[in-house]
């Protein structure tokens, strides 16, 4: 029995071939209580068994702040923080980040189809991955809302859509949390690949966002969504702007597909 085409390789998804892989991945991603929900989500991912098995999942041993896999950062200290988070700026504004996948070459190519070529069929795929990540790390958090990292109007005009807004719609529908646009981007910063070093990225993101005028309770718990966590400068800048408006009682957690 087949159930559609794999979004990664284009091959047919054969249900019985995928079943054992889906069960194993669900076991890797969940504790005993969370297994049934995550299993149903993993089984519904539009990947064949081979591509599902090849997903570069982030392991359980991670930095407790940014979510980096220990395999990629040997310097995680005895309180669970990586070197970057120990010495990072504005860390108090973002409680934690969690991601599902390591950002490897095959993943970059697939995300590029969605992000730069407008392949919107991938929005459902990535939305499911984000829902799995919430179930894995944040299922008891009780978020007030989901918000996204906005694009600058010029970048939005060039691209035609904000891919993260599409992801937020899918995620919000999946986990039954409202999506609210809380920020505007006022600074057209260079692409991260064109910025030289962590300090330059941090400086470029300074005062890049402003509050969008939404009424929110000061004690809100907000899930901030983006596609990739690289240095964290963008997410921390967004978190700083939100907390400047709502106050220090507001808690902000971020969620990305990739780390």
From TrEMBL:
InterPro entries: ComF/GntX_DNA_util-trans, PRTase-like, PRTase_dom. The keyword Glycosyltransferase applies. The keyword Glycosyltransferase applies. Keywords: Glycosyltransferase, Transferase. Gene3D superfamilies: 3.40.50.2020. It comes from the Bacteria. One of its GO terms (molecular function) is glycosyltransferase activity. Belongs to the ComF/GntX family. This is Amidophosphoribosyltransferase. It comes from Brevibacillus formosus.
